Amino acid sequence: MAPLGLGSLSFCRLLKVTTGYFHSGAQAEYYVELSAGLDSNSQPVLLIVDTGSHFTWMQCKPCNPCYPQSSPVFNPGKSPNYTPQAPGSTSCNILQSTGYGTGTDGGTCNYGLSYADGSSSQGQLAFDNFYFGDYYTTHVALSYQLPFGCGFSNVNPVPTVTSGVLGLADELSLSWPEYWGSAFGYNPSFTFCFAPIFSQPNSGWIIFAEGATTPTQGVPVYSTTPILDQGNDGMTYMDVVDFVVDTQLVGIPMGVFDIDPSDGSGGVILDSGSMISQMLEDAYDPFKEAWKNAMVPILGEPDNSDTPGPPGFELCWDYPNDVQLPDMGFVFRDQQVFYLSAKAKTLIYYSNSGRRRMCFPFQYKDRDSNPAMYWGSLNLHNHRIIFDKTNSLVSWQYNCC
């Protein structure tokens, strides 16, 4: 279905991305605000920006159970263009061919999703109009009929303000970037810049399609590295080989970050839906030790005794004023280095007594749960990240928010 109000194949939507944070910043998320429905019947929805999910979904009435969200739950009964997808339709066949399809009982095309944090959503595949307002320029909204999951059974144990997830991974042609490419002929690429937690103003953004791969003028550093090809997985696998702390390579053993060629497991996934990066022991332990050794001459030994950090964070200090922290970065096989911005090098939180604290912003991950490692959105703060889906590249520009 063609987008409403579209005059040509030029499509560049620039949306505001907001940071929501909870428990003094120990939990946070990045989300966009859209409108679902048509004209006067449109309803606001807040969706987490998630490069680790293949499918966009949101809570729908009547849901049982529902989790708390800040805006009213979307009511498909009040949306005249809401269209459940019938069994046997092209979109339903695509969904049912994946691990997310759960059959067509009841004459509807059903899905089910679950996440590592215990959250889940079950419901039916549908289409509806979504308005994309050009937040920073024309303020003109375009409306597109897009596929999404209408969730009638939803669980989320993590505090959130959001209605659901904006899935940007590309295994499914039902993911919005891929759908724009197949249905409308747009570039499936996108780019975003996430503002640091607690930042004011909260000025992150995301651009879809045309314009997504154009470098930001006046920002000189522009680096590019390939996305690893993992067949139909759809995730953004990064070819990481080491970390750098200060001016020194950490020296992670060879092969720790590699994907297992026998079963495709392992590797490093760039996952904006996860706030915190999670690393396996062979990567986490030497990285943590290198960071500690670089920090002790500046701030002394870490101290968690009277004001422990959030669960899973081992190295914490009182937050210093006007102290330059050592460089920290991801090193790729092609020798490119992604250096973290100043506020991305620590997890900042407030203790129960109101003290501002900071921790080493990585967590240990058990190999038994899943051998993949995750590069989360905290370490992307303040840099523009470009997902060039046409050429299978990830690029970045520093300090663009």
UniProtKB/TrEMBL annotation:
Coiled-coil positions: none
UniProt keyword annotations, A-Z: Hydrolase, Protease
Name the UniProt record assigns to this protein: Peptidase A1 domain-containing protein
GO biological process, one term: proteolysis
Key word Protease present: yes
Species for this entry: Adiantum capillus-veneris (Maidenhair fern)
Entry-linked InterPro entries: PEPTIDASE_A1, Peptidase_aspartic_dom_sf, Plant_Aspart_Prot_A1, TAXi_C, TAXi_N
Residue stretches making up the Peptidase A1 domain: 30-397
Superkingdom to which the source organism belongs: Eukaryota
PANTHER family recorded: OS07G0603500 PROTEIN-RELATED
Family recorded in the similarity comment: Belongs to the peptidase A1 family.
Molecular-function GO term, any one: peptidase activity
